[in-house]
Amino acid sequence: MNRYYVDLHIHIGRTWTGKPVKITGAKSLTFTNIIEHARHEKGLNMVGIIDSHSPEVILEMESLIQSGEISEHQDGGLIFGDLTVIPGSELEIYDEQSNGPIHLLMFFPNLTIMREFSSWLSGHLKNIQLSSQRIYVTGLVLQKKVKDLGGIFIPAHVFTPFKSLYGKGVNKSLTEVLNPDLIDGIELGLSSDTHMADQLGELHKYTFVTNSDAHSLAKIAREYQVMAMKEPTFLELQKALKGEDGRHIIANYGLDPLLGKYHKTVCAECLNPLNHDDQLCDQCGKNKVIKGVADRILELKTADTSPPGRPPYVHQVPLEFIPGLGPRLLEKLVNHFGSEMAILHEVPYEALTEVVPAKIAEFIMKAREGNVTLAAGGGGKYGKIAD
């Protein structure tokens, strides 16, 4: 088996003609820019681009195939040198079974199937061009369609307070809205980790994935996983998510939940941290609350330990969180050492100090070892390294 760095949740901001896809995504997030940045700057081996249902994005991918810049692998996936692209989609359901909107990820092996899925979608949502659109079918209908097409189905960022399975969508159980047998994995999101998620016993049967949900090039690979696969293809990804034939996730790498935007419960008006039972904010007196992921998981808790064989979750601080490491210095590091993956995992302290000040090199090493002090985030505001 080989080791591969994988991030399965990257948005497209604009098409190659400049039309918006993910409204909140950066204009620089075109398909071509993403694959070049993910390969050359981040050092990833597999990415899921989850706005690939947009017709103009499909046209761009087909054009790159025709020009020979990318190719389709017989086992699924688009090959760009040593990077494999898995075309996918993020959609929103809000049916009569759910309490609120829920975001879901689905992935397909090739453009023929993605085009078929896009054609089907166009009859069930308002704007096929855009990302994360609400689809007017039930979650069960969507799951069946994905599986009929041989796709992968994963609920997205399942604990975030807005537009997620447990944050808003269900009272207690995913079975309220989805068929548990048609789920291939669970995406944890930035404000939770394996230990937190495994407090829900019904999740013990699923593989956890950690992805960036990138809305800009810089955010790609802020969370990712290392997978053991024979080669980076769609078929191998399916096997790794199921733990089949020796394929598996070696480790999940993600933010310490304290760095996530929704870890703590806060006042919705002034973002003052609140205790779980607080009804009024002692700062502004308002009674609107954004419930943090940690408190929501405590409400749902049914288990105390993780199941046997769960991969380790490594708390990792993205380089953009390192105090003093701005875009220019980061670019200098990447140019010198080849990729962010190399800097995060491999480059020794002495080599780092040849490129950046010793204090920044020390922060990078402490972050690699999990020895940094963190201030928790909440209410849409990221946590930070306390320097």
TrEMBL record:
Q: Which residues cross the membrane?
A: none
> Which InterPro entries does UniProt cross-reference here?
Pol/histidinol_Pase-like, RuvA_2-like
The protein, known as:
Uncharacterized protein (TIGR00375 family)
